[in-house]
Amino acid sequence: MFKLIVRLAACFGWIALLGGVAVAKPSEVTLYDGGVVASVVYDTASGTPVRKAAELLSHDLSQLTGHAPFVAPDLKVAKGAGVIVGLASSPSIAALLKKNKISTAAIDGKWETYGRAVIPAPWDPTAKAILIFGSDARGAVWGVVDLTREMGVSAWEWWADVKIRKVDHIAIPAELRYSKEPSVKYRGFFINASNLRVWAAKTYDKSEGGIGPKTYERVFELMWRLKSNMLWPGMNGSDPPFNVHKENYDLAKDYAIVRGTSHVEMLLRNNAAEWDPKTMGPYNWVKNKNHLKNYWHGAVEKWGAYDNLYTIGMRGADDFPMEGADTAEKMGDILHDVVSEQRKILSETLKKPADQIPQVFTPYKEITAAYNTGRINLPKDVTIVWPDDNYGYLLQLSDAKERQNPGGSGVYYHATFWGAPGNYLFLASTDPSLMWEEMSRSYHFDARNIWMLNVGNIKPCEYLTDFFLAMAFDMDAFAKPGSARAYLQNWSAQNFGKAHGDEIADVMWRYYKLAFNRNPEFMAFSTTFPETAVQQTRYNITDFGDENARRADAYKTIMAESKSLMASMPEDRKSAFYELVDYTVNTGGNMSLKQLAMDKSIAYGLQRRASANVYAEEVEKAHQQIAENVRRYNQDNADGKWNGIATDYPQTLPNYLPMAIPSWKMPTDWSRCGVQVDGGGYFDDKGWWYPTLPTFNRELGNRSYYMDIFTEQPVSADWSVTPNAPWIRTDKRAGHFSPATKQFEQRLHVSVDWSKAPQGQSEGLINVSCSAGQKPIEVHVRLAPPLADKAASFIDAQGVVSMYAAHADALTGAWRVLDGVGHTGADVQASLDMAPVDPDDAAALAKAPRLLYRFATLPPDHDYSFPNYVTDETATVKAIGLPVFPTTKNGRLRIAVSLDRGRPQVLDFNVVYYGAKWRQNVLDNAAAVELRDVPLKPGSHTLEVYALDPGVTLDRFEIRFAGAAQAYDAAPETQVAH
Predict the structure, then answer these.
(1) What's the confidence (pLDDT) of residue 411?
(2) What 3-state class would DSSP assign to 239?
(3) Alpha helices (H) along 194-327
(4) Measured between alpha carbons, how far is 571 from 764 in angstroms, rounded to an integer?
(5) Could you give the residue ranges of the DSSP H alpha helices within 608-727?
């Protein structure tokens, strides 16, 4: 038990969410003094949603205090302190406002706003009452929700078991406050996966056999706590359709929830469950127009009395492309006819003009191309809901002309998806910083009427749902880059306490960034549509410090930290921590570790390393841990409350199934030790060639390179290393290989003590001895000559100049640095409002946003005795950015690149949606354009990059010499350490 005194500075987003007028040194209203809890009074004339809001508040106060508050619909029968909830327009509430001289001007006529004031209790003038008065029903509800948040109640108190903790005192600031309108008018989510149905049928509502009224009531309560007002119900054919129960609609009405439907379900229909081609014919407008019209009319006639937002248009019946048209133009013509007839149905059935009935049109997938033909002639009162590409990148947004339409626009965004080129149904791994960037972009272009998020089963998508809806409610609070991470820190502290909030947020943030680099569900490098087999990854095992090991170590670190945090959680937060953090971190980590270990088993088996079979065992362990996590979620966590919500085989795709694991049989007729160095150089003590580490550059500071020592048989052996120069440092000097511990390899990191190193070019050796080997091995260590160009900010290392976009020597013009976005800590984005630039117009190009990088290159290594990298003076200049789309249908995504002030070369990031390049880009979360076969002599150079189109978002630049290795991730930056 603890004392809860809620003050303005400690509120859950009050400063951001409310534009109130605060009184100097405000007094407080005590709602619980340790013995008596305040009454809850609601105005009956304000309607059922207000009554249910009072019930929600009563529930939370009861959980907080252990005492059930007195709840009454009569302003005269309560006692003591209290909370009154109602509409500002209701006669009894209006009378109280007038009596206490409280103005409603700040909320009059506004959407979903409220005021909050402290007045003498109408039932006892000596007591105080908090009066929450809404401009409408949902405004009053948000007033109650904000109050519960101030009292410490999490939105996830039921859906993620963040249990309400008892307190011994509750005091609320007494100043007058008014909320502002939500940033986005309609805010909600789309239930679109089968596990929620399985859980409901198996655990929560067995009699219904799936998602029914009991489950939907819990969904509506969650929506309230997240200040969401619109639902697209489940559409899978295995789910009982929303339309099967009138009670679903009645509940939505009681909770003031607007019912909408997805991009494929027109005029309130659920095609998967309600359209039977055997009895109704094809879902084809050309062949079956009248049957379709009757089908849609039936739903509007039956459910039109409720608060609905009608989806118009047409796709295939079960979220596949439209039947009866094979070109965008034909689809456009059909949609023109369809929309006209659907509006007639609405107008004639609901007895009002079509432009007075709220409608949305979602140009999903191929329908975007149909819309862009201009043949649909969509009425201007219809809201266009722009979809992302299913992987988090918005296909387009409204142009200047479309932004003038009264219907406005909105966004349909995915946090989970089933389809090509890859599924992500198992976990929720979308990078919040990407979500922030795309939603900021959409808000900038006035997509403010509807924001919908595909949340799959809701779980384990809790945090992303919370974050998305928080932005939708108050985008002003997320105006700055970096706000995505700040929100995660606040959210973690609110749900798990300040003591561990920052640690939890850091673990989650690193998980999301690792997943942005490669979603754990894409780690098999297989695809869906077409379904392909599991493949080896593209993570470079031999170069750049071993990308495989770096990723594996990063996952192991956050998994260990999550485990430690779980152990430190108080008992009432363990279930919540598992659901919201540990399950995703541990399961996503093991999905990645499984594939990374398989890669190493194959690579090291071919090297004849005894450790190859150890890595094979790790593959099996990782898969078993995934299965155990799912079992624990379903059966043990929260006493089995969520049994059925998780599965380890979504859609039984190859990347989720158990892997065929290799078993390596090593030759038994000899005993050897081997060495492999960073860069791939390999020697197993019977050949005549000796490996060389990558050249060390003084300018790169304390950079290290790795060196592996290993046995080729699973035997006991001692090893040691001895540098022959005092400036050569190794992090280990000796060790032991043992079958008992299954340790048959050791990684060392080699670096240079520059205070002892010679000033010029030099070379030394590391002598490696291994008792299982035939002879010592010499590893060459080289120092590069000092760089003559002291102005250079980057150099080449391992044949690559790696420059992160945000680290430009000069950044001029309309660029914005997006902290936290991308792969390298921050991306740079050209202004969303800049006019396109003609690269042939010298004057215009001179004014274009520009980035400048100074770099130097060294002579290529052509030492034929002991080479490391053999490269030529021909390079590929590559620019890597986010795979965003142009902001409008006619836009482009061009940059101009100039080397050494030469003529700018134009490169365009734009790709064909659903084309091969797009498929690769979204799986990599990166788009690359490049200049090939560029002659580049040793010496000083400049790279200048000009933005030619708005919204170009750049992550990094790589200049890779012919012969150099290729990194999958961002190559380590080769920035000079000044």
Answers:
(1) 98
(2) coil
(3) 195-199, 213-225, 246-254, 271-274, 277-280, 285-303
(4) 57
(5) 612-631
38-42, 187-191, 786-790: range with lowest mean pLDDT? 786-790
Q: Which amino acid is at 812?
A: T
Omega cis (within 30) before 240? no
Which one, of 321, 271, 309, lies nearest residue 410 by Cα? 309
**Res 315 pLDDT > 60:** yes
Under the banding of pLDDT at 50, 70 and 90, the label for residue 25 is very low
Say yes or no to pLDDT of 422 above 60. Answer: yes
pLDDT reading at 7 higher than 60: no
User: Is-contact 133 115, C-beta < 8 A?
Assistant: yes
Note the pLDDT of residue 233: 94
Burial class (CB in 10 A: 0-12, 13-18, 19+), 479: exposed
Between helix 462-473 and helix 432-444 the angle, nearest 10°, is: 20
* Residues 838, 886: Cα–Cα separation, whole Å: 16
Cα–Cα distance, 173 to 167 (Å, whole number): 17
DSSP 907-918: EE----TTSHHH
Task: Name residues whose C-beta falls within 8 Å of residue 74's C-beta, 6 or more positions apart in sequence.
Answer: 41
- H, E, C per residue of 783-810: ECCCCCCCCCCEEEECCEEEEEHHHCCE
Does this model's pTM top 0.85? My answer is yes
User: Which tokens is 867 given?
Assistant: 């080479």
Structure tokens at 81: 């302190």
Residue the block writes with tokens 């399985």: 198
pLDDT at 867: 63
Tell whether the model's pLDDT for residue 80 goes beyond 60: yes
pLDDT over 90 (residue 392): yes
Return the structure tokens found at 349: 């059935």
Centroid of chain to Cα 69:
40
Task: Please tell me the predicted confidence (pLDDT) of residue 271.
Answer: 92
Cis peptide bond upstream of 481, omega within 30: no
Q: At what angle do helices 547-568 and 498-517 cross, to 10 degrees?
A: 150
φ, ψ (nearest 5 deg) of residue 485: -70, -35
Cβ neighbors of 327 (< 8 A, separation 6 or more) are: none
Query: In this structure, what are the phi and psi dihedrals at residue 232, rounded to the nearest 5 degrees?
Result: -100, 110
